[in-house]
Specification:
Radius of gyration: 43 Å
Strand content: under 5%
Oligomer: single chain
Largest sheet: none
Low-confidence stretches: none
Number of strands: 0
Number of helices: 2
Mean pLDDT: 82
Distance between the termini: 109 Å
Length: 119
């Protein structure tokens, strides 16, 4: 074997190794790209189901909030009714004090403001 044959054989071997490294690197990148594409396709396919689940959760939360709001409104109505009853009772007690010759206490400012403005 001549020296040139040895050099060609060595360069051929090095060339094959380098080509193998480039092929391995390309294969790894192709596998990563394929995995990313598969993941993206799975997400795209699952999105309608996720949207439906989100919609169902939203509807459940909305129904619960509507129920809570209705209960709160009913409680406000009850509290206002009790407030008016207490107010009427306090006025009758004030009238009794005046009838007996006494001087009733001044109504607190926040109570006066509420009955004057409604707030």
């Amino acid at each position: 074997m001549s020296i040139w044959a040895g050099i060609v054989a060595a360069f051929g071997t090095v060339g094959m190794v380098v080509a193998g490294l480039f092929a391995a690197r390309a294969t790894t990148r192709a596998a990563a790209a394929t995995a990313e594409a598969t993941r993206a396709a799975a997400l795209a396919q699952a999105e309608p189901n996720q949207r439906e689940q989100d919609r169902a959760a939203f509807e459940a939360i909305k129904a619960e909030l509507k129920e809570d709001l209705a209960e709160t409104k009913a409680e406000v109505v009850r509290v206002r009714g009790v407030l008016w009853s207490i107010w009427g009772w306090a006025v009758s007690l004030r009238d009794q004090v005046v009838d007996l010759g006494g001087t009733p206490q001044q109504t607190p400012n926040d109570v006066e403001d509420y009955f004057r403005t409604g707030v």
